[in-house]
Structure formats: structure tokens, C-alpha cells
Design goal:
Radius of gyration: 20 Å
CATH topology of the largest domain: Rossmann fold
Shape: globular
Strand content: 5-15%
CATH class of the largest domain: Alpha Beta
Distance between the termini: 52 Å
């Protein structure tokens, strides 16, 4: 797909999605540049919040669908590398905030709502901001979005309680499925809240871009995997890579319009029932952690699935280390082992590409995969009911 001409891709209904997956390594470099330019202003904004309270600030990453999965992916990593003495990191969907605010918000806890959005036009995104302001006495907003003209960006105010951070213009995906928007927003949040030095984070982004390009260059290996007979896909991982599995499987559901069934879980959790999903028409992909302790559990599950001999294929995705899976591996060879929070973004390019190839395999058009048009790029038909607390 990545080698086809624009005309050939357009005939397949895949030009937009293919291009938007392929350009991500470049977008990550742009995202780093944006952060470097805005770093002092963002730090000043966060200092202002800290100066107003002596409590730990609740940082709630929010969004709907893929935008929610940004938070699901980065929170475990930030709980290890973020300033946890100052912040309590959580991921809560806008859909949960809007539907049941009393169950997820606390009126007396200072809260920074970090809103992720591609277009910023989802009704839940706008409503979540208003409900947090209504429910929480001491609320602040960091809006990370890809569309300067979107409603969420327009709603973001320029006062000291809010900060708007725009992603690279090309990250505002025009395709049905979010790709570069997901990875750029996740990277931005990591750059903001990871306490590693800026120099080191710059090295991470350089390595990440190389790894992302590896997927693009080795598409034929992924094509071999999807040439197999399969009707099901499983994604597994641990920690922050467990959070990533939900986004990975969603790409398959979206781009195949549900023609390929999917399951996601943590590597250890999969044994507790969901493993029943595996049959001889199932591809299993496991994101392998670069944390040596955690990696053991990913490898245990891989070896167990291989030993079971039931799945059509079992594949490990990650970087080589002292101990590796004895079966099929898709390795990112590089001298630098990335922390899992950043490795996740290379992993998702793998998953996006698998979804793209699966979409073509089942006869879909990836740019417009929903034949009934009942699922849309920006959700429709949402009624926001007044909340009275």
C-alpha cells in the first residue's frame, strides 16, 4: 500500500488513510518542535495552577473513542515518570463525564481536564468541559486538538485557567479512522508531563521516528501476516501497552466495518476467560514491554499461545532484548530501547497498517469504511441533556 501511486490508492478508496499512516514519523518531529516552542508557556500555565493550591492536582485525560484511548495508553507510563507528587493522573472518557459526572468527578479536588480531540466538534467534548466547570470548584483546562477551527479550540479561552495546544496541521486526519491525530496527541502529552529531560525526550522522538519508518519500509512482512486465512484478531500487552490494545483493535473494527472480530486485553488478563476467543481463524498480536520485569509476562503469554497451537498465527511486536519470544517476532532493531510510553507510538503504526491491509482484504474502502454510514467520522445524533447539580 505504501508503494502504490496516489491514483492506485484512490481507486482502492485508501489514499487518505494510507498517506496519513505513512506521514506519522514526520509529524512526530513536527510535534516535538511545537512542544519546544511552547514549552515555557505550558510550564508557566502549570505553575499557575500549582500556585493556587497546596493539594495534589487531579489530571484527567479525556476524549471519546480513540481520543479516550490516548489517556488509557499514557497514564500507566506517566504514573511511573510523571510528577506524581504534584499530579494524580487518570483517564476518563468524556462520555462517562457527561453521562455520570457524580461518579467520576469530585467537587473539592483541583482538576486539570486535558481534552484530546481530532476535530474538536464532538458534542461530548464540549459538554465535558462545561460539566467539569460546573461540578468542580477549582477547574482548569488543557486542550490538545488538531483543528484550530474546531469548536473545542474555539471554546478554549485565553485566560489563566485554560491553555490551547494545537497539533501539526496534517495531524487533523481527513480519513475515517484517527491515526496521526492519536499518535501526535499522545506524544504531546508525554512531552508535557514526562519528567525526563528535554534532551532525552528529543532522543526518544528521533528513535521513535526511525521505528515508525521501519513499519512503513517493511510492509511486505505485515502483508504476509494478513495473507493468512483469518476472521479474528487479538491484541494483548501490559501496562501502557495494555492501554494501547484498545486503540489497536478499534482500528481493525473501524476499517473493516466489523467484518473482522476483535478482542483486546492485558497479557495476564487474557487467561481469565477472553482466551476462549482464540480459534484457528485468529491472529494474535502481543505488544512486548521494554521493562524487563513486565516483559516476562508478555513472553509467558506468547509462549503459552504458541504451545496451544490453536491460533492461525501468534506474533510478538517490540524491540529485541536479552530474552525474546521463540516464535514469530516483528522487531524494531535499534540501539536505543524506547520506554514503553514512546514505544507505544511505533507499535500503533504496526496496528494501523494491519488494519489497513485487513480492510482491503475484506473488500472495504479504508477512507470510507462504513457502508451504512451509521458510524461517522464525527459522531452525530448525540443529545446533551442539561445537568443540574
Amino acid at each position: 500500500m505504501f508503494q502504490l501511486s496516489t491514483k492506485e490508492l484512490a481507486e482502492l478508496g485508501a489514499e487518505i488513510t494510507t498517506r496519513e499512516i505513512k506521514q506519522q514519523p514526520e509529524l512526530w518531529q513536527e510535534t516535538l518542535t511545537i512542544y519546544q516552542e511552547k514549552q515555557e508557556a505550558i510550564a508557566a500555565f502549570l505553575r499557575t495552577i500549582k500556585q493556587k493550591t497546596d493539594k495534589r492536582i487531579r489530571v484527567v485525560f479525556t476524549g471519546a473513542g480513540t481520543s479516550q484511548y490516548v489517556g488509557d495508553t499514557i497514564v500507566p507510563y506517566l504514573n511511573k515518570t510523571g510528577a506524581t507528587a504534584d499530579y494524580l493522573f487518570e483517564s476518563i472518557a468524556t462520555t462517562d463525564i457527561v453521562a455520570a459526572p457524580e461518579q467520576v468527578l469530585f467537587a473539592d479536588e483541583p482538576t486539570l481536564l486535558v481534552s484530546f480531540a481530532r476535530s474538536g466538534n464532538s458534542p461530548e467534548s464540549l459538554a465535558a468541559v462545561k460539566i467539569v466547570d460546573q461540578f468542580v470548584a477549582d477547574s482548569y483546562h488543557l486542550t490538545i486538538t488538531c483543528a484550530a477551527d474546531g469548536s473545542l479550540a474555539q471554546q478554549a479561552t485565553a485566560d489563566e485557567t485554560s491553555y490551547l495546544l494545537l497539533m501539526p496541521e496534517r495531524s487533523n486526519d481527513a480519513g475515517f479512522a484517527m491515526t496521526g491525530s492519536f499518535s501526535c496527541m499522545a506524544l504531546s502529552a508525554l512531552l508535557i508531563f514526562d519528567q525526563t529531560s528535554l534532551t532525552e525526550k528529543g532522543h526518544y522522538v528521533e528513535t521513535l521516528s526511525r521505528l515508525g519508518q521501519e513499519v512503513i519500509n517493511r510492509e511486505t512482512e505485515l502483508q504476509v501476516l494478513t495473507d493468512r486465512s483469518f476472521k479474528r484478531i487479538v491484541y494483548l500487552g501490559s501496562g501502557t501497552l495494555s492501554g494501547l490494545t484498545r486503540e489497536a483493535q478499534l482500528k481493525v473494527l473501524e476499517l473493516t466495518a466489523g467484518k473482522i472480530a476483535t478482542v483486546f486485553d492485558s497479557s495476564m488478563g487474557f487467561r481469565h476467560g477472553p482466551k476462549s476467543f482464540v480459534d484457528d481463524q485468529t491472529l494474535v498480536f502481543v505488544f512486548v514491554s521494554n521493562t524487563s520485569y513486565t516483559r516476562q509476562y508478555d513472553l509467558d503469554m506468547l509462549e503459552e499461545l504458541k504451545s496451544d497451537g490453536i491460533a492461525a498465527a501468534v506474533t510478538a511486536i517490540g524491540q529485541p532484548a536479552a530474552v525474546n519470544f521463540s516464535g514469530t517476532n516483528f522487531f524494531f532493531p535499534d540501539d536505543t530501547l524506547l520506554p514503553d510510553g514512546y514505544l507505544a507510538l511505533a507499535d500503533i503504526v504496526f496496528a494501523q497498517t494491519i488494519a489497513l491491509l485487513a480492510s482491503i482484504k475484506v473488500g472495504n474502502t479504508p477512507d470510507t469504511p462504513s457502508p451504512t454510514r451509521t458510524v461517522n467520522r464525527v459522531v452525530k445524533g448525540v443529545t446533551i441533556h442539561p445537568y443540574n447539580n
